[in-house]
Every structure is written in structure tokens, then in C-alpha cells.
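Handout, section B. The chain below has 265 residues.
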Amino acid sequence: MARQVNAELGLFGGSGFYSFLDGATDVAVHTPYGPPSDRVAVGEVAGRRIAFLPRHGRNHTIPPHRINYRANLWAMRELGVTRILAPCAVGSLRRDIAPGTFVVCDQIVDRTSGRADTFYDGPVVTHVGFADPYCPELQSLAAACGTDLGIPIREAGTGVAIQGPRFSTRAESAFYAAQGWHVIGMTQYPEGVLARELELCCVNISLVTDYDVGIEDIPAVTTQEVVRILQRNNDALRSFLGALIPRIPLQRSCTCGSALADAQL
């Protein structure tokens, strides 16, 4: 059973992070919402138990609109995880946020459609608070960690999540930029709200791989260019996570763990 293996922190990301864990064990977790994206690798980083799950599967076979986000978050909680670290690749909507920058988003705009984004379909009516989507304690730690390592980092920003798998048109991208939003991706939602419904902390680290096409005179993005920058970002992200994880206190001081206290009718 999955519960025989426990973890404290959950990490979503790409397949390159298997080597990041010491003594990793693959665990199959069964959920009421079907299978998660893959088996969960559970190991240690700096003495902390980490559960790692590649969102798209270890061979990157699941497109963003087909990810079983509910199963992924449920699997993390089933393993004992109380905090989620959620790095993701994004495009920049602003010329002053260059590829290679990390943005610790504090807000999100949902432009997806048809994704299962709640565990509460009735009969218990639940309205979880989501004014501040991410854990403030983890946000602060992540921003300070990036600064200390000399990584180009923004300590706040708004990410817009689009449905995918296609990239935006120039008109769509220009509209998002005109709203003052900062980065654009395909996997930021519904991870955060599902974590909130399970009373898990969640922090988003958006890794900028390219300028989105709504910025004037920017050529259309290609998958090959995104992959090239993403590989470079992943090296910095491993260093970042290796420094961040030991800084996370054993006990939570935020309110994420009581998100349902006043949410149910």
C-alpha cells in the first residue's frame, strides 16, 4: 500500500529530477480519481523526505490539458505530504522579465476550460478561499533563496494559465500582457486550488523559457527553443531546490492547513 511509504514535501516537475533524490523508491498510488501521471518517486534531499511526480509522466506523454490534476494532488496527500513545490515552465509577458528568470507567482488567472478543478462536487457544498492562491510562508522562503543564490528572481507576479496544448495567438498574448500579467503557462491551474482544498501548502516557481508572442517584435516561440532554455533552467532549479528544501521549517506557520474551516455550508 502507498501509505507504507511516507513523504513530507511534494515536488512536481520534469523527468530530469529523478537523479535529484537520494535513495528513491517508486511507489504506485491508487486514488478515487484514477491514476496519477506516473508512479511517485520517494527519496531524500538534505534529510527531508520528498515525493516527486512528473506532471507529464516520466516520458512526457501527457499533454497539459490531459493531466489528472486531482489524482496527482490526492496521491501526494496519501503519501503524507503537507507542502507542494510546483515549478513549471512559462513564457514571459513582459520585456523586462527575460528568459532564465524565476518568478514566484503570488496570483493566478485561470483561462483554462473543462479541467476537473475541485474535489467537492456535492453533496457538501464547499467554497474554499482562494484570494491568495499560494502559501505566503513558502513564497517568502523561495524569494529569499533565489536572491541568496544570485538567480534572477521576481518575488511576486501574476501567472495566466491557458488550456493548451497550443501556444497563444499574438492577439491573445497581447491581451494578457495588456492586463498587467507577468507570465503564461499551461499547468499552473488547477494545482493550486486543489492543494488548497486538501489543506496543503503550495508554492509556484515559474521558470521563464521564452518571451511570449504578444510582445512587439518577438518571433513566434518554438518547442525546440523552449526545451533548450528549460534544460538550462533545470540546472539552476536543482541548485535552487537543494538550497530551499533545508530552509523549510518542520512545522507550518501559515493558515493553509485550516483552509476548510469556514469553507463548507
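Note. The domain at 2-258 is CATH 3.40.50.1580 (Rossmann fold). Compare this with the example in section A.
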